[in-house]
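Feature request disguised as a bug report, sorry. It would help if multi-protein outputs had a clear separator. Right now it looks like this:
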Amino acid sequence: VAIGADRTIYVGSHDARLYAIAPDGKVRWRVAAADKISATPGISTNHTILVGTEDEHLYALAPNGTLLWLLPLAGDVDTTPAIGRDGTIYVAGDDAHLHAFR
């Protein structure tokens, strides 16, 4: 579970969806991925939601659920993305590599 600045709760699911849940418990939006989401989402300093999936991709979404970009990796992404102070995104995949990018 990740919580945004506006208190929206972001959670991935094995039904291959990322959910945004309002503080009152109502689903604001859901976005489908190609495979299940085992990792906790991360939130960058510019409020981008980052989540890895078992379809070997890292998804970046705007707070309204719009897909911003999709990064293919060489293995499932079962870890929470970490965001450095300089905005660098770090994520580990099942390919035994730590990926870093901006």
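(second protein starts here, but nothing in the output says so)
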Amino acid sequence: MSDTVSVSEWALIAEQLFAMLPVQGDAVTLMSAMHARCTRRDGVRAFCNLMMTCRELYLDLPWAMPKWCLSDVLLTETAYNTFISRAACQRMLIVDWMDTFQPALVRVEEEEEEDEDDDDEDTSAGGTSTTTVSREVWLENRFLAYTWLGVTWDSRCPFLQAKLMTTPRTAGGFWSTFARCGRVHFAKLSAMDAWATASHDEQMEEEAVEEGQAAEGMEDTRDMNTAPPEQHKHQQQEQQYQQQHQQQPRRPAVFSLVATLHNQQQVDRWSALRDTTLAGVQGSRVDLTVTAGLSSLAARDVNKLYLSTLEAAVDQVSFEKVAHVNWMTHETQRSIRGTFAGVERLVLNNAASVNDISVLAGIPAITLSWYSCPHQPVDLASPAGVDLSPLSSIKELSLIRVRFANEQQAFATAQQLKLSRVALRCDTLQAANVKLHSLLTAPDVLHLPNATHIELVSTFRVKRVTCPARIDTLIIDDFSHTPPAIPEFEHAHKVDLNLNTPLTREQLADLGRRVDSLVLRGTTVAHMADLQDIPDDVHVQLMSVCVDGPVPTCVNALEVYLEGIDGYRGAWMSNVPNLLLPGLLQHRRVHDLHLLSGRKLLHLSECNFAGELSRCDRLDLSLCSGSVSVSRIESLIIEKAILGLSCSATADGSGAGRKTMARAREQLVVTGVRDVAHCRLQHCSIEAFAGCIEHVQRLILSRCTFDSVDDLPSVGSLVLRECTTEDKAWRWPDVVMTGRTPAEMAHVLMQGKERCEPRYWSW
């Protein structure tokens, strides 16, 4: 293969597998963040499969890719969320390098490595063919390869901890590479302290060894004076190599931290560790929660700093080269004092008590908000509030439920302006991006002479809006009983309307002739027939609308609202490529299910149906009832269903237990899953694999129940997450297996099966 396509060329091809390609606005709205991330994961999975195709790509492809190209898939900000499950967090912040729960599988891999060592001695460390040494070298190389791709390692990772304790002679090269691409997360301040202690102890041991060798070095120097020039040069090079690796600090390239600081001493300790152990290391995200009053707090060289001081005020802060600061202040924080050098964006939450922000004058993007009591109205008769005159050069300004004064220059300068639940006292805004939400006071006529992005939410006090002839985006969300003020424009790229008063057929046709993309929500559309005059080349998306007849061909995406209808008619929606049908706890009936096949996206939740579905790019079946067979699906997600139960058993009650039959009457029975590239089953009960799951490339079982693995299907990849037996008495191991036979997979699962407490599995 290398004779025709080089690794660098394969890297260019691989980048296309997970590149975030531009998508239509309808796809962005219809697919949740989870679905979008799953789609990107599919591309990363394809990249990993490509990497495994041959030895050359396995070794060299990761290093030919851009550094951290997979970081946003391998770790998202939800990994820092304290409300997600511990298991999910551990999967995103990787603690264990290599699976410790697959002893049978690991033994198979070790045997394969021994066979490879016999044939490829040149791949072992130092020219030796020793299995232990070659395995260590292989582990280190793969660890660094995945690090280069963007894996974030928990600081407690045993592999990293072992490297911290290793001498520079054996680990110097590792730390040299890790300092260029390593990403480490510290779950608390003590974890950072432990890292510093481990590094310091090893350094002290090295210095002791060096002192012990000093006398020998003096003798070596005298010997070098009489040694041949070639030997002298070699000894000098060896000493330089040792010195370079001894001086290599044990640091990552990027770190993240979540810590609670209870006093000034801990804050000072954080600063000291930042300046010593992590000196020169870029901070990715730092979350600091402070529970006591502070005289000072500092942070530097951090991409995102999330700071909570809700317990007490901070006298002085020092932020240097912190790109994004999000600060929750205490109610007694009257002023902000300190330095903000290199801060690009500041979000000051709970800022109603702050009146002096002069120190923020040089920050280009600022948000001042107050969320402490969202239902309490802003008292317009109270003191003027924060003085905005220092923000005369601001580029982006957001004011949310705060009082302010002297805003004229800031409003005239800002290119992006968001005002929410505040009083607007002027009738002209110069910003190019304007977002107005629930204004407390507003002029009758509002002029937006430069705006290309306009967002008006509950701005019924404004009767008329003027804007440029050509704009990019217009969003209006208005539930008043009077027609909203729709700006007059000649052309817009996208218009998104959510109105309490329906638009007439003539108004919809007029909009259709002036837009590229049109999103209509709720009662904005009264009847499907009113859309007939919109041109077919306009991308129309209908969200939470009532379907009372055939959907016109101009509609590219549709989410149906069920009020007043007895179910869904597949014939009415046969032309819509992206379709979401929510049952809203009522399990509405879907008629003519087979007519919904062949979609780009089909999402059915809490619906009742019976039949077959096929030829969909993406199919989601969530909390449904009835029975279905699916085939020829690219990506399939099924939640809360029963698999492997035949239609005859469902009909006459034979061949299944009483509990199973009771659930079958309430849940969806999936009689067949065939020809599916990616299949994810969540909270499903699997009565039998055989005869139900066939020709599936990748099968993911998440919190599923099944009693037997004797009839596992032949799949390219099998993933288990938190699965148990039907009675919850036994837990199957969390495992990922690729390219294994059903017998091998069954053996691994049986080896890892362990008893668990029933109360642990409270679903």
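Even a blank line would do. Unrelated, but nice: The two ends are 49 Å apart (CA to CA).
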